[in-house]
Design brief:
Elements lengths: L12 E2 L2 H13 L4 E6 L5 H13 L2 E6 L19 H11 L3 E3 L3 H4 L18 H4 L3 H16 L3 E5 L3 H13 L5 E5 L19 H22 L4 H15 L3 E8 L17 E8 L2 E8 L1
Parallel strand pairs: 1-4, 2-3, 2-5, 3-4, 5-6
Antiparallel strand pairs: 7-8, 8-9
Bound molecules: pantoate.
């Protein structure tokens, strides 16, 4: 369900790294902890829950809106990605955001920018295979945003679970002085994970979309009941195709920390099931602990 802001207030908006650093520096000088929620805009309740979580851990909360071109593949939806800064700013104000950083592409990637961050291992399977270059784009822009804002704590959604683990690895490997918090996935009543891309779904597709969450939960139950991992994954792919998904990129049960493969038989320790599948032209992802 689309949400609309109740009022048209906005947090102050800065568009340059210098202005962001000046405001964050002033807050830090007066003793505030800084929380940060990076986004690409097209905000929904899931994003607002990230802002509220950041609020619980910091005196001042910064959000960013930047549709990052380097994390989109050539045939993906960078141009079509929904953009409505005024609506997003009003929602951020309601959620308790104190400052919006909304740079343009030239501010984030000035002419001559030539550095890309690649996180090996955890970036490679799943979406790393299905969307080559995606996580290098994410890691690079997140490293820049964290360096620009210098928050004490930054919040990312578990909805993008592989992204969250890539960011955790990045922060550890580069000794970035920030605490990374994962926030639980916000869901619609029928279980569909909230996503900016849900706006692309037709009403008929939106009805089918809830099968993604149901199917993952069912596969998790089967594996916990003793079914072999590969059999449960294969049954989930079949169930999604039968429900009306056009293409399934993956349904896989992995170790949660590094997203490495589990053994072939029934599982005993912590595990996460992750999936990506196309409904019409819309690519949906979801995951859950099992
Ligand atoms: O999850 C997102 O919205 C984006 O991938 C992020 C983390 C803001 C980086 O562009």
């Amino acid at each position: 369900m689309a949400i609309s802001p109740a009022m048209s207030a906005s947090p102050p908006i800065v568009r340059t790294v210098a202005a962001l650093r000046a405001q964050v520096g002033a807050w830090r000088a007066q003793g505030d902890r800084i929380g940060f929620t990076p986004t690409m805009g097209a905000l929904h309740e899931g994003h607002l829950s990230l802002v509220r979580l950041a609020r619980e851990h910091a005196g001042k909360v910064v959000a960013s809106i930047f549709v990052n071109p380097t994390q989109f593949g050539p045939n993906e939806d960078f141009d079509a990605y929904p953009r409505d800064e005024a609506r997003d700013a009003a929602l951020l104000a309601e959620a308790g955001c104190d400052l919006l950083f909304a740079p343009d592409v030239a501010e984030m990637y000035p002419p001559g920018a030539a550095t890309t961050i690649t996180v090996s291992g955890v970036s490679e399977p799943l979406d790393g295979q299905a969307r080559p270059g995606h996580f290098a784009g994410v890691a690079t822009v997140v490293a820049k945003l964290l360096n620009q804002c210098a928050p004490d704590v930054a919040v990312f959604g578990e909805k993008d679970f592989q992204q969250l683990q890539v960011i955790r690895r990045l922060v550890r490997d580069l000794d970035l002085p920030v605490e990374i918090l994962g926030a639980p996935t916000a869901r619609a009543e029928d279980g569909l994970a909230l996503s900016s891309r849900n706006a692309y779904l037709t009403p008929a597709e939106r009805t089918v979309a809830a099968a993604l969450n149901r199917t993952l939960a069912e596969a998790g139950r089967r594996v916990r009941a003793g079914e072999a991992v590969a059999a449960a994954e294969a049954a989930a792919v079949d169930a999604l195709l039968a429900a009306g998904f056009r293409q399934v990129d993956y349904v896989e049960i992995r170790r949660p920390d590094d997203l490495g493969r589990l053994g072939p038989s029934a599982i005993s320790g912590p595990a996460r099931i992750l999936a990506a599948a196309f409904l019409g032209r819309t690519r949906l992802i979801d995951n859950m602990a099992i």
